[in-house]
Amino acid sequence: MTSRAVVFDLDGTLAVPNRDRRTLLAEAIETTDAPPVSRSEYLDAHGQVVAGETRTPIFERLLTDGDPSPDAVARAYREAVNDALEPVDGVETLLEDLTDGPGYRIGVLTDGPSLAQRSKLDRLGWTERFDATLVTGELETRKPDPAAFEAITDRLGVDPERAIYVGDDPERDVAGAAAAGLDAVQVLHDEGPEPHPDANAVVERDAFETGLKTVLASCCQP
Fold first, then answer.
1. CB atoms within 10 A of CB 79
2. DSSP 29
3. How far is Cα 10 from Cα 93, in angstroms, rounded to an integer?
4. Pair 162, 4: CB distance under 8 Å
5. Which residues pair with 166 in a beta bridge?
6. Which residues pair with 86 in a beta bridge?
7. The whole model's pTM is what?
8. How many other β-carbons are positioned within 10 Å of the β-carbon of residue 47?
9. Beta strand 163-167 with 183-188: parallel, antiparallel or unpaired?
10. DSSP tag of 136
């Protein structure tokens, strides 16, 4: 067993789109000449299906016969999201330093369809960046189920209590990680929610690199 691991959420933590998701969905709808779909309708459909590999099952619930194929709309949305995705400032340096310096194992645990999430990592050049990457579309569950967090720590070869999870969502990331026995670091941003009581520490996304290094130096040396 290695002494420590740092596991990251992907969306909203390590990378953010340069346009909001409502706009990106509208772009995909326009590109494929599909009927209008609101962001709330999309999220409702997302919560009602298991999208294991792609978002196609989501759009199957939203489109009818005569509309563009759900697969075409899912592909257009995936491409729009990937084109807009950018690393959070300081993330590249942070990942290099965690790997080359203290000797942490680093991983990603991200919710979503497998192809959608792994294509984001490919677009960012991070396919080989982490010691382990797990997309919940490849599992039978998703965050905040403790089983998802236990699966990534198992792949990293660490006990949950020797791992730190870093994410921006209070319930899925912070509460889920804490329930699985990991320390939880919540990433805060201007438009985001307040700190969750289960968070062991918080960092501002605008100062992600220095903030997380400070937290790790104070509590979690390998």
1. 16
2. H
3. 16
4. yes
5. 8, 185
6. 16
7. 0.92
8. 8
9. parallel
10. G
CA distance readout (Å), 19 to 33, 85, 102, 178, 209: 20, 9, 35, 31, 22
The tens digit of pLDDT for each residue in 157-189 reads 999 999 999 999 999 999 999 999 999 999 999
Tens of pLDDT, residues 44-93: 998 888 778 899 999 999 999 888 999 999 999 999 999 999 999 999 99
CA–CA dist 74, 56 (Å, integer)? 5
Both structure tokens of 67: 């509309």
Q: Which amino acid is at 89?
A: D
Report which residue type is found at 110: T
Cα 52 from Cα 140, distance rounded (Å): 9
SS3 content of the chain, % helix, strand, coil (to 5): 45, 15, 35
Identify the DSSP state of 36: P
C-beta atoms surrounding 168 within 10 Å? 22
- How far apart (Å, rounded) are the C-alpha atoms in residues 139 and 152? 11
Rounded CA-CA distance 95/130 in Å is 9
Tokens 């563009």 sit on residue: 68
At residue 106, the 3 state secondary structure works out as strand
